[in-house]
Design brief:
With about 425 residues, this protein is mostly helical. The protein is built from 16 helices and no strands.
Length: about 425
């Protein structure tokens, strides 16, 4: 398909569907609370429970994502067997209970570091079951033509909240303390529960149910037979494990390099979200996705993070977070939608669970290592590792395509722009 014939849809098309509109609105409220909690939790660990220990913060981050790596395949199999809507209601209950427990501990003055470790792991368990169901639920609310649009709008919701949440958290922490910020997060999950209950089940298009026996391994075998999906998972693994540790790196740069307070730290998350939100809105207009977009965006992300590594001032650092957010979210949304569009509906929950396990499950490996690097060599090296790792991922992806299909498959060498699946079919 030539570039001239690439289709676009109106940016907010999926919001015209009532069920999706309810889901998107509830998710936006919940995501604001989630980003408030992330800032509050980091501030709690760095300034109240430790003396700016990046290792402790890395452990907390790792514990949040470790259950995803372990449980996501089973969660995906479950999502393919039962109602995804019902599954999402129960995951919101679990996430709310964890959030409210941490808030109660902080407000009561009882918090110890091990409390945060345990609750971070429990949050990861709930998130492991929430993610595959959430990802696979979008195609049940919209038509196939609007799947990429829905994925883009989901990303927009997440990063609009990322724009709002850290800034609100910074102000809340400065005025009232960490506890109220965590409390608002726990209450925010009610919005998703209400949205799910208010949906009209007759307007949903459930995917065919998978049989229970052997369903997890069936998902693994399916992915192993798809080198196109494997390549995309490799790229997002490198991005998620080494590049997307801004929860940790921003905190270290803010406290140890630029020596700013909670408000300025929260502002960094919001500035990063400006670029992320832009990427989500652009993604919502696409109905087809190109390999050149994913590879080029990852290369751009590596370059932007390299600039962050040597940023001389707080505002220089903040300014370059915008293109960093734009490039990272372009990779994530394009890869996510490409995997969903190219996967059989009956396998979608399991494939997206494996995708999530690869993408987020690498964080338990990367975050503690990066935390240790921050303590041993300084905060700037935590960013340098991400830049180098993502640059190497681009080199490996290009080398693989050249080996399998020759120079003509390279995105910048093609006369016509093909969708990701078509580009990668030649490598099968």
């Amino acid at each position: 398909m030539s570039a001239a014939t690439v289709e676009h849809v109106p940016t907010f098309s999926s919001l015209g569907i009532r069920n999706y509109r309810l889901f998107w609105t509830g998710g936006l409220i919940s995501n604001v609370g989630t980003w408030m909690a992330r800032v509050a939790q980091d501030w709690l660990v760095l300034t109240m429970l430790t003396d700016n220990s990046s290792t402790a913060l890395g452990i907390v981050t790792g514990l949040q994502f470790l259950p995803i790596a372990v449980l996501a395949p089973y969660a995906g199999a479950l999502a393919d067997r039962i109602s995804k809507r019902r599954m999402l209601i129960w995951t919101q209950v679990g996430l709310a209970l964890v959030g409210l427990t941490l808030a109660a501990l902080v407000l009561g003055g009882w918090t110890q570091l091990w409390h945060v470790y345990v609750l971070a792991a429990l949050q990861g368990v709930a998130a492991a079951f929430d993610g595959p169901a959430r990802q696979a639920f979008a195609p049940e609310m919209v038509s196939e033509k609007l799947i990429a649009n829905a994925v883009g709008l989901n990303t927009t919701s997440f990063h609009a909240a990322r724009l709002i949440g850290p800034a609100v958290a910074g102000l809340t922490i400065a005025w009232w303390g960490v506890g109220p910020a965590l409390l608002l997060n726990g209450l925010s999950f009610v919005a998703v529960m209400v949205a799910l209950v208010m949906m009209d089940p007759s307007d949903l298009t459930p995917a065919p149910r998978a049989r229970a026996k052997g369903s997890v391994m069936a998902g693994v075998r399916y992915v192993r037979s798809r080198p196109d999906i494997i390549l995309l998972m490799f790229l997002v693994f490198m991005l998620g494990t080494f590049g997307l540790n801004f929860q940790l790196t921003n905190a270290l740069m803010a406290t140890e390099v630029f020596h700013v307070g909670a408000e300025q730290y929260g502002l960094l998350g919001s500035i990063l979200a400006i670029g992320s939100l832009s990427a989500g809105l652009l993604a919502a207009r696409r109905t087809q996705l190109r390999l050149r977009l994913i590879i080029g965006a990852l290369a751009g992300f590596s370059l932007c993070v390299g600039v962050l590594t040597v940023a001389p001032t707080y505002w220089w650092y903040a300014a370059f977070l915008i293109p960093t957010g734009l490039t990272s979210l372009t990779v994530m949304t394009a890869a996510n939608a490409s995997v969903q569009l190219s996967t059989e509906p009956v396998m979608r929950g399991r494939v997206m669970a494996l995708y999530q396990a690869i993408f987020l499950g690498g964080t338990p490996l990367g975050a503690p290592v990066i935390g240790w690097v921050g303590d041993a060599f300084g905060p700037r090296w935590t960013l340098a590792i991400g830049a180098i790792a993502c640059a190497l991922a681009v080199v490996v992806a290009v080398a693989y395509l050249v080996r399998e299909s020759g120079w003509g498959v390279l995105p910048w060498r093609r006369v016509e722009e093909e969708v990701v699946v078509d580009d990668l079919q030649a490598a099968r």
